[in-house]
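User: quick one, fold this
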Amino acid sequence: MKWHHAGIETARLTATKRFYQDGFGFEIIDTFTFNNERLVWMQKEKLILEFIETKQSSPSSVHFCWEVIDIHYWVKKLAQINVEPTEGPYQIEEKNWISVFFEGPSGEVIELLERKREQF
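Assistant:
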C-alpha cells in the first residue's frame, strides 16, 4: 500500500489554491467536476492534495504533517504571505523533533516537523 492523496473540503477554493501555491509551491495538476462538486488536484513532489469545493464552510478536523529540512525557513516563508504559526515551534526532545502548526484557509491544521540532525 502507498499514499495517494489527502482530500480537503473547502468553501474557499480560490483562496485555498493560492495558499498552497504561494505558501508551499504546489502546482495544479488536474481539475474536474464529479457528482456536481468541483475538484482541484495539486501536487508538490510526491505529495498530492485534492480540494473539494463545498457550498458551506464547516470546521475541518483534518490534521496532517509534512517533514521538512529547515523549519525556520518555512516559518519565514509563510510569514511572507501573512501566515503565522497557530502553535509552536515546539522542541520535542524525546523524539529530537521541532514542530510548528499552521491553519490553512479551510480550517485544516498543517504541522511541519523537522527531525534534528546529529552535529558532527
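User: anything notable?
Assistant: The chain has a mean pLDDT of 89.
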